[in-house]
Amino acid sequence: MPLSRAEINEIQERLEEGMSPQEIADSIGRMADLEHADILIIRSVANDLLRGEPVRASDDEPAPSG
Question: Quick check: is 20 in a domain?
């Protein structure tokens, strides 16, 4: 389940509001009735964002090659 930039931004906003990665994943998972694997992906992305790691979105421009 690749996440779009809008979805990643939503996760970032929730982190900034003080939600934990687990709370974010659980909340989105309940609202969207997601499979367990998709919830794990959301939690992983939230953890990456929390650590300040770059997260690539499905709709980002491809990285230049070469």
Answer: yes
How many angstroms separate the CA atoms of 8 and 60, rounded? Answer: 11
Say how far apart CA 39 and CA 43 lie, in whole Å.
Answer: 6
When computed from its CA atoms, the radius of gyration of the chain, rounded to whole angstroms, is 12
What total of structural domains would you count in the chain?
1
pLDDT digits (tens, 9 = 90+) for 35-53: 999 999 999 999 999 999 9
Whether 41 is covered by a domain: the verdict is yes
Helices (H) and strands (E) in the chain, counts: 3, 0
Does residue 55 fall inside a structural domain?
no
Query: Rounded to two decimals, what is the model's pTM?
Result: 0.88
What distances in angstroms separate CA 41 from CA 13, 19, 36, one per listed residue? 17, 16, 9
Q: Given a cut of 70, is residue 2 above it in pLDDT?
A: yes
